[in-house]
Structure formats: C-alpha cells, structure tokens
C-alpha cells in the first residue's frame, strides 16, 4: 500500500487548473459512491481497498484472520515465562545441551579403519592431484608472476611471458567454469575423523569443567520444570506461525504497487485527504460559479455531508494500516522468530513426563561421564590429509566466487585485446598501453583476486606431493587416539546407557522459548521504538493488526449505513460511476503532469545520484523496466528527463491562457496535455527505487548518498511518468465533460429555457415552413446518400431492418480483427472492467455480441453473474442471445444467484432480474457490423511460393503485405494441392490455422496481379481443407469462423501437461492450449486436487488431463485410470485431434467444473 503525501507546496498554471477541476472529479465521484450505496450495487470492500491502494483479494484475506484471538496467546506466554524464570537465563544450558547432542552423534559417525584407508588409496591415485588443482601449476605461476611484475616486484619479461601463455590461461578459465563437472572423491571418512578430532579438542580445552558438573545443571533444569508444571496449562495450537507466514506473503503483495487496483470506483480520490474535501468542494467558489451557476446547493450538500466523517475515518484507517504495516516490515525478523517459538511452545507435549526424564538423565549422566578428559593435539599426524581437504574446498569455493563475480565472456574479450598489444620494454610504458585496453579494470580485478587461488593451489600441491609417504599406520593411530579419548568414551557411555538426548534437548528448548518470549515482550527496546522502554513489541504487532481491522470494519459499516439515507438528487445523476471513472482517470494523469512540473528540480536531481547508487539500481532493482532504464548512459537518462521538463515547462506556459478555468477551458487544457509523452516504460519507477532503498535501510545504515537518493525518490514516488501510455485517459476525460455538465445542469435545473415561446396562429405560415423544411431535409438526405459515408449509412440501415443472415456472416468473418484491442476482445474487456460506456460503444459499433470469454461465458453471462444492470440492459437491447448456454449449461439469466438477497449485491441483482422480466417477450435486432476494409489487411505469404509472383504482389499491395508474421496478421497465403488442400508440416503453420487468421489459396496472388480489385474478394479463395500426415480435414474455415466469433473455447476444461523430456514445440503447444481456453500445467496434474469425474465441456468423452508424450514413457497407469481423468496424445495425435475439431458437448444439467478456480 502507498499513502500519498500532500504536504508539499506546489505552484504553476498546471497546478491551478488541476486544483479547480479536481473539485469536479471529487464531487462526481462522491455522487457515484453515494448513489451506488443507496441502490445497493456498491462493493464497499472494493471502495476501501482502492482508497488504500491495496490489492483487494489480499486485503480481504488479511481481514479474515483474527488478531484479537492471537493476542491473548502472546500475553499468556509472556506472563507465564516471567513467573517461571524471573530474570534468569538458559543460554549456557542450551549451548551445552547442543554440544552434548552433537558429540553423541559424532561417536556414531566415527569412520572405520577400512574407510580411512580407502581415502588414502583415493588420494594416492595418479589423477587425484591434477583434477583437484583445476589449473596447472605453471599457468597459476604465470598469473602470479604477472601480478608481481606489474607491481615492479619481478622482471618485466614476466608480463610478456603471461601474454605468450594466454592460451594456457584460457584453458584455466574454462576449467574454472566447469569445476562442478569434475568428479572428485569426497574423502568422507577423513572429513568425519577431522570433525571428531576437532570436537574432542574443543571439549577438552573449553567445556571440560561444564560437563563435569552437568549433573548440577540437570538439577537446575528440574527446578524450572517444576515451576513451569505448576503454572503452565496446555493450550490448543493457535496456528500463529502459519498465520504470520501468510500475513508476510499478503503484505508482500500489498506493498507491490503493480498489484494496486486500477482507478475505478474511486478514480476521483487519488490524494490522501481528497475524500474529506468533498463537503467544502460543494461550497467552493469555483463549483458555485461554474457548475451550480447561482442555484442552491443545499440539497447536494446534505446528500454528501457524510463524506467529511468518512474522510476523517479514512485517515484513521490509513494511519492504523501504516502502523501495522511498518511494525511488521521493521520487526519482521522478530515477529517471525517469536511466532515460531510460540508455535513450538504450543506444540510441546513432553511437560507431563519431564520430571521422570530429568531424574533418569541425571542418574545416567553420573554413571557415564566417568573418564578423565585430557587436552591434547588429537589430529597430529593427520595434518597433510587435512591440508588437502581444506585447500581443495578453498579452491572449489574460490571457483564459485569467481563465476558469481565476473563475466567470463567479457574477460575473454579483454584478453583478445591484450593479446594484440605490442608491449614496450619499459614498465611505465607497458602500464600505459595496457590501461588503454577496453574494460581492463575487470581483467585487472580478476587477476588480482587470482592470487588467492594461487596460494591455495600451491599449498594443495605441497600437501599432495607428499602423498607417496603417507602411512596407513599413522592415520590408524590418529583414529585410535580419538576413539580412546576421555570425551569419546564418556559420550559412548551415554549412548550405551540410553541417555535420551533428543527428549532432553526438546525440554530445554521449550523452557528457553518460554523464557525468551517473556524477555522479548518485556525488557528490551527496538529499532522501531528506540525511545520506549519496556515496550511490548511482539504483542504490539497484534494490537496494531486488530486496530487496523476494527478501523476497516467501522468505515465499511458507516458507508453501508450511508446507503440507508435516501437522496434522489444523487440517484438521478445518470451513469455517475462510469462518468466519474472516465473523468477521474484522466484528471489523475493531469495531476501527475502538474506534479511533475512542480517537481522538476527533484527530477533533475535524480540524475545526480552517485555512481554507487546508480549501480545499485541498475543491478539490484527488482523491477526490470526500472533497471533497464537506469542502465542507459547518464547522458541518455539526463536527456530524457530534460526533454520531459522542457515539455512540461512549455505546457505550463501555454496553460496560462486558460485563466477562466470554466469547463470549456478544462476541455482545451486536457487536450493540450496529451502532447506530453513522459518517460516511456518508466511508469512509477521512482516508487520502485524508493522501495529498494528502504529495503537496504532495513539491512544496514545508509551512506549520505543513499539517504539523499531515498529522500528525493520518495518525493517523486507517486508520479506515473509514462504519460503517453495514458493519453487515452486524457482523451476520455475530455469527452466526458459534456455528459457531466448535462447531469449537473439537470440537477440544478439549468437545462430549461429561460425565454418564452411565442406562438403564431397563421396556419399558412406554418404549413409553408413545414413544407420547406421537409424539402430541405429530403434534399439533404439525397445528397448525403451520394457520399461514401451516406452510402455506408444507408446500407447499414437497410441491413439492420432487412438484412439476411448471410449479409451479417460476410462481415463477422473479420470480427476477430475488428473487435480486438491490445490483443483482447474489446467487448469482453469492457464488461470485465465494468465500463458500461465502452460496452455500449462496442455494441453500437457492431461488435459480435455473443462472444465467449476463455472461461466459457458470453458477455451477457459475465455481466449477469457480476450484477451489472446497466451492462446487462445494453447487451440485451443490442441483440445478445438470452438462450445461449455457458460452460455450465446455464443461460445468462440463470447466472443470477438463487439467494442473492443474502449477498452484498442484492440491490444490483434485483435490478438485473427486473431487466430480464421487462424484456422477457421482446426481441432486439443485432447491430450491423462495420465493414473491414482491405486497407486494414495484414497479409503474410508462405515462403514456399514462387518468389517472382510474391515480389510482384508485394509491390502491388505493399501497404498491406508484411514480410513477417505479426500478431495482427489477418491473412496467410499458402500453397495448395489440386484438391485445394494446404499441407501442415510444422506446428507454426498449425498455430496460424488455429489462431483464426484467414487462410487463402495462392491463386489469389495470380488473380490479383491480373485484377487488383480482387483483393476485396478474399472469400472466393478460402482454403477449406488441410492435410496432415496423410489425413485430410475440412475444418479450416470452421476454425476461422470459430475464432472470428469467439465461440465456446475448444479446450475449455482441458489441463495439458507435457511429459516429454525434450519438447521442441513446447512454445507453440502452450500458445495453442492457452488461446483455446485450456491450461498448461507447470507441474504434473494430480487428479485428487481437482473434481474427479469432471470432463471438458466440448469433449465429454475425454478426460480433462491431456498428457503429451513421445511414446517412449510408460504411462499405462494413467491410460488405465479408473476415473478416466487422463487422455494421452503424442504431438502428432494432438495435431490430428485439433484439426479434426470433433465436438461432443456435455449436456448434463448440473455440470461439474474440472477445477473450482475456472470461473470467469
């Protein structure tokens, strides 16, 4: 979530215009919300999350947890911990217990003589040293000598020697990159012996006394345990740890601005205190003068009066959310640790048997820990083998470090430049020449780091060179010495006598968790509250959580009650939500432009971030678009911002002419602002940067450079600087002004004429006037009919009333291209965005009205299910078929919930139901689709056709022929055989057939070259048949029509998994399945996680899980699945299946969906 600060003082003509006109945006938005609340068609949670700029689903889930029930658990454990321990600690006891457990495991892991001797044999093998060294010694010496020569510590000739030996150095580099592929013996027995020896030495030197008196320690533990038993009550697990983990995931989503809801219900309230301003906005001089125009606003003031209180409550909610959010973010490690400890405390079930356990443990320890412990060098004689193991590990770690730190391709490029140098004889001149090599600093850093590698290589060589003299008896003696040590004998006694170390450690850990929960709650300061002693910080997290939840519920209830106060003045404001959204989104863009102008100094300051800050943004920012933009050169970045600022300053100067600031001015100001493009793709990049720097601040103290960058970026973080991507919002806002004005004119009674109509009784004059008007009108209609636009209009009118189905089908062939915007169906998208104006625009334009979404619902199904009465009415009145079935075999009207009266959308569903009843016996004509002109064709030609013909055709129609396949391709011209069939020989060709692209015969080219007008007759050249591996299918035009009309998705309810190890066509397979409503599984589908027995809607004879295999894997268990949930295809079989387009509809009245997440 992001809270916008309005504390900065801004200036400029742009800001003056914005401040006045945002009054209109806020009031219109308030009317829309008030109207929705009264009519019971407002989702209040959506309003709250949009005002908080929080991801709705995540915030709703956050609200489902019950922090008020978790807080008592925290407080109970803290109090009981205090009563048991007071201020005493268990830290040393915990450490000793862990040491004891580790030692008892060491005894069991000691190697045998045979295992140790095998290690010696492995180490003595001839290839052991070369494989371990990675690079040959001579090459390592070359680098070492080069470094020393560059420092003046060795002869200059060593620089030339390094240059001459670059081939061997390149081999070394390759070996380093491939170090993981070298299979080296682990020498596991030697490692175990080393660990045991180190343990014995550690205990004998530092813990001997503590273990000798460990029986007394057990008695102390018994005292704590007896106290705990008296006061501790076993509690039901609260699930606190899992809750915290999920809260962290949800807050991660809520903190990501890319997951914020788009401005919709609250587009007119982008600022922190915008809601609170509504009441004063209505009384403002600007609104009174330009909108009410002297009329009384008392009724509107009364209707919108609750917003003042809503604004105050919203401030409290934002503050409580911010506190909750910040405590979690700043104290995340503590919250994690403590919730985990409380979870462990609750799960511990050994307290009832603890006293007998401790009594037995005390007796066993006294019987077992009887041997004297002597300090000694227990690994003496094993030094060489230890040296080999250590240095070999060092080399392996060093290789990993080099790979992670350096780009080896860049190093090789630099070496190529180095190899081409002609070196002088003087060291100073040599250095000057070498420094001229591009990116030499990287190579220099690599070679300097290499010295550490050289040391390890040298030591490993020294240790390994003595392998021949290694004596098995020496190693056996080392093993015997460790086994016979007092430490190991005592530990072995504990194992033999049955000391229950695991249960003992769990009891001690339980007591320590109980003690620490008390300390964390009572006695320490925190980074977040450094000035408060005794602050109950973990409990404070749950208190803040509960406060935030209560604030949310309080404001939601207030908005709900607001809807019980009738107000006709706001209900009569037509299309209030659509107008508010359209206008508010545009004003938000204008606001960003105005703020960017006022913050131009800060924008330029961002170009002065230090090199270290810039590097951090380039390499570590999680948002690719920010990192990429920042990776451009300083000059390019500065140029982009300077151009932006120049555009903003020009716009501000030009906007000074709009001093009247009436609605006409606003229209002109918005259109003028469209010309400012901003920074393409950067969007809210400064917010991404400030979040990145804030995260760094949590880990360590920031330098002054980073602090300045963070402070500056926070001032800019609310700006979305990609203005060009949002220019549509500015256009839409300008278009909505007249409609908004009309509604306010109706509200204030300003649309009635002020003068009186004077009536004349001279019938002759009236008759003549009417006749003249009719003649003029007829003449105008005739003249208009002679124009291209007129002909189109009259033809569309004719088709609307008298057109035959075939006339419509000719135009619907192109619906896939006509109805698509940004790769999506515009009508479905408008319904999904709840944009009634866009739905009406698409319907009136003639978009195919019965289009299905990928989830198997028509637009009417979707609008009905979601309870959008305005959209339902628009669709029905534009001919939407009310009898079509969706993928659940339901008509649109059946999507109204049975018990909708119990839902939050009761008012909206009631309106939808009334609309269906109103038009039950009335039919509406479908709108006539627009003509798809040949100038909009994007034709791609198969490269197998005659090149000369293709070139001639491209020359003739160069504006509509594309040399490559593009997403907007409309036609694909392919070669056909004598039967008119095209042959599919690749997944790519199949993809274009199934994508809805119109497949045309190559004869179209020949005929068009003779008569260019035939370019408009593509329907005469359609390919109808397709041949694949001997089979012919007459389904090409069926696929084209299905995609053009977006009929029920062919693969709805299909889940595909590719089980072939290497699938070269995976990208095309995925695209085909996704385009036709199926789902490509990332993991193998487990039928238990789905609804067993469900079937794909159009393939009720097949199982929903399509497994694509290569015929080499044994999948019989799935082929014979008793529930018939799996359908097996090879890639070729799947192509046959798609081309056949055989449909078996599941006609069951009560269909089971394959997954409960399939609903649109």
UniProtKB/TrEMBL annotation:
UniProt keywords (A-Z) are: ANK repeat, Membrane, Transmembrane, Transmembrane helix
Q: Specify the superkingdom.
A: Eukaryota
Q: Which InterPro entries match?
A: Ankyrin_repeat-containing (IPR053345), Ankyrin_rpt (IPR002110), Ankyrin_rpt-contain_sf (IPR036770), BRCT_dom (IPR001357), BRCT_dom_sf (IPR036420), WSN (IPR003125)
Q: Which residues form the BRCT domain?
A: 927-1022
The residue intervals holding the ANK repeats read 855-887
Transmembrane domains' residue ranges: 761-786
Name of the protein described by the UniProt record? BRCT domain-containing protein
């Amino acid at each position: 979530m992001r809270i916008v600060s309005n504390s900065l003082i801004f200036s400029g003509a742009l800001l003056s215009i914005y401040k006045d006109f945002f009054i209109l945006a806020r009031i219109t938005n308030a009317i829309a919300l008030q109207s929705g609340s009264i009519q019971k068609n407002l989702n209040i949670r959506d309003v709250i999350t949009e005002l908080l700029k929080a991801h709705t689903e995540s915030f709703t889930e956050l609200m489902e947890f019950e922090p008020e029930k978790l807080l008592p658990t925290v407080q109970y454990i803290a109090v009981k911990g205090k009563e048991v321990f007071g201020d005493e600690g268990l830290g040393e006891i915990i450490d000793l217990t862990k040491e004891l457990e580790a030692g008892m495991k060491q005894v069991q892991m000691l190697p045998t003589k045979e295992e140790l001797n095998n290690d010696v044999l492995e180490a003595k093998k001839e290839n052991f040293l070369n494989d371990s060294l990675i690079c040959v010694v001579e090459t390592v010496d070359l680098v070492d000598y080069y470094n020393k020569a560059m420092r003046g510590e060795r002869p200059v000739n060593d620089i030339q020697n390094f240059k001459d030996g670059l081939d061997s150095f390149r081999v070394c580099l390759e070996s380093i990159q491939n170090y993981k592929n070298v299979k080296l013996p682990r020498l596991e027995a030697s490692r175990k012996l080393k660990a045991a020896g180190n343990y014995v030495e550690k205990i004998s030197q530092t813990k001997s006394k503590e273990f000798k008196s460990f029986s007394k320690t057990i008695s102390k533990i018994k005292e704590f345990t007896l106290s705990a038993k008296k006061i501790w009550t076993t509690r039901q697990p609260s699930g606190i740890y899992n809750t915290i983990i999920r809260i962290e995931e949800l807050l991660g989503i809520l903190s990501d601005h890319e997951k914020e809801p788009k401005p919709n219900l609250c587009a007119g309230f982008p600022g922190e205190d915008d809601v609170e301003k509504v009441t004063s906005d209505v009384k403002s001089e600007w609104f009174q003068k330009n909108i009410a125009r002297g009329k009384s606003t008392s009724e509107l003031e009364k209707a919108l009066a609750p917003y003042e209180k809503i604004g105050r409550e919203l401030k409290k909610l934002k503050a409580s959310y911010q506190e909750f959010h910040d405590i979690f973010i700043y104290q995340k490690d503590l919250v994690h640790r403590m919730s985990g400890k409380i979870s462990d405390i609750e799960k511990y079930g050994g307290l009832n048997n603890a006293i007998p356990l401790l009594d037995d443990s005390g007796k066993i320890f006294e019987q077992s820990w009887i041997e004297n412990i002597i300090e000694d060098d227990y690994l003496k004689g094993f030094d060489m083998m230890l040296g080999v193991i250590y240095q070999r590990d060092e080399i392996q770690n060093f290789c990993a470090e080099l790979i992670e730190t350096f780009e080896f391709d860049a190093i090789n490029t630099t070496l190529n430049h180095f190899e081409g140098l002609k070196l002088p004889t003087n060291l100073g001149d040599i250095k000057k020449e070498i420094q001229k090599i591009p990116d030499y600093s990287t190579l220099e850093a690599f070679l300097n780091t290499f010295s550490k590698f050289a040391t390890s290589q040298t030591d490993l060589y020294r240790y390994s060179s003595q392998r021949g003299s290694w004596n098995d008896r020496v190693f056996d003696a080392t093993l015997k010495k460790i086994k016979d040590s007092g430490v190991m004998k005592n530990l072995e006694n504990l194992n033999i006598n049955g000391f229950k170390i695991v249960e003992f450690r769990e009891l001690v850990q339980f007591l320590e968790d109980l003690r620490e929960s008390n300390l964390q709650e009572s006695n320490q300061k925190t980074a977040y509250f450094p000035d408060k002693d005794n602050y109950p910080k973990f409990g404070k997290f749950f208190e803040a959580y509960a406060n935030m939840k209560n604030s949310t519920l309080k404001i939601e209830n207030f908005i709900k009650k607001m809807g019980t106060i009738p107000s006709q003045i706001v209900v009569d404001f037509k299309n209030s939500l659509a107008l508010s959204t359209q206008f508010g989104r545009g004003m938000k863009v204008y606001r960003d432009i105005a703020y960017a102008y006022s913050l131009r100094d800060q924008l330029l300051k961002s170009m002065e971030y230090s090199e270290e800050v810039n590097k951090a943004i380039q390499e570590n920012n999680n948002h690719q678009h920010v990192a990429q933009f920042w990776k451009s050169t300083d000059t390019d970045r500065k140029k982009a911002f300077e151009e932006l600022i120049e555009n903003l300053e020009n716009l501000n100067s030009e906007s000074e002419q709009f001093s009247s600031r009436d609605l006409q001015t606003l229209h002109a100001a918005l259109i003028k602002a469209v010309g400012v493009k901003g920074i393409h793709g950067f969007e809210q990049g400064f917010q991404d940067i400030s979040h990145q720097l804030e995260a760094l601040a949590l880990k360590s103290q920031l330098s002054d450079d980073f602090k300045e960058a963070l402070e500056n970026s926070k001032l800019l973080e609310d700006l979305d600087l990609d203005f060009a991507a949002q220019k549509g919002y500015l256009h839409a806002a300008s278009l909505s002004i007249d409609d908004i004005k009309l509604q306010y004119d109706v509200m204030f009674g300003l649309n009635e004429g002020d003068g009186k109509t004077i009536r004349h009784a001279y019938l002759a004059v009236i008759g003549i006037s009417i006749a003249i008007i009719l003649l003029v009108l007829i003449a105008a209609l005739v003249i208009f009919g002679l124009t291209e636009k007129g002909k189109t209009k009259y033809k569309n009118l004719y088709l609307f009333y008298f057109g035959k189905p075939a006339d419509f089908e000719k135009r619907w062939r192109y619906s896939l291209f006509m109805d698509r915007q940004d790769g999506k169906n515009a009508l479905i998208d408008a319904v999904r965005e709840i944009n009634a104006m866009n739905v009406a625009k698409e319907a009136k334009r003639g978009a195919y009205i019965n289009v299905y979404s990928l989830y198997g619902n028509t637009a009417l199904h979707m609008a009905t299910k979601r309870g959008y009465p305005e959209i339902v009415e628009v669709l029905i009145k534009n001919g939407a078929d009310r009898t079509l079935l969706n993928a659940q075999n339901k008509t649109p009207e059946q999507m109204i919930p049975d018990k909708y009266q119990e839902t939050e959308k009761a008012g909206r569903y009631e309106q939808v139901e009334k609309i269906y009843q109103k038009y039950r016996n009335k039919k509406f004509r479908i709108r006539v689709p627009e003509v798809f002109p040949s100038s909009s064709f994007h034709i791609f030609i198969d490269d197998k056709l005659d090149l000369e013909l293709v070139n001639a055709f491209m020359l003739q129609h160069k504006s509509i022929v594309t040399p490559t396949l593009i997403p907007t391709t409309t036609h694909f011209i392919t070669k056909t055989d004598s039967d008119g069939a095209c042959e599919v020989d690749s997944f790519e060709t199949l993809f274009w057939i199934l994508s809805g692209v119109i497949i045309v015969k190559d004869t179209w080219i020949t005929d068009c070259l003779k008569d260019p007008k035939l370019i408009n007759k593509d329907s005469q050249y359609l390919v109808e048949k397709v041949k694949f591996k001997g089979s012919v299918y007459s389904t090409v035009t069926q696929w084209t029509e299905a995609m053009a009309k977006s009929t029920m998705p062919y693969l709805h309810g299909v889940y595909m998994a590719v089980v072939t190890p290497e699938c070269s066509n995976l990208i095309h397979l995925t695209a085909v399945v996704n385009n036709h409503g199926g789902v490509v599984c990332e993991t193998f589908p487990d039928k238990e996680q789905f609804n067993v027995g469900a079937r794909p809607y159009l393939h009720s004879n097949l199982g929903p899980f399509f497994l694509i295999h290569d015929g080499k894997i044994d999948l019989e268990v799935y082929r014979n699945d008793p529930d018939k949930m799996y359908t097996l295809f090879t890639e070729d079989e799947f192509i046959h299946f798609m081309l056949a387009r055989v449909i078996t509809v599941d006609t069951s009245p009560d269909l089971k969906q394959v997954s409960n997440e399939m609903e649109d």
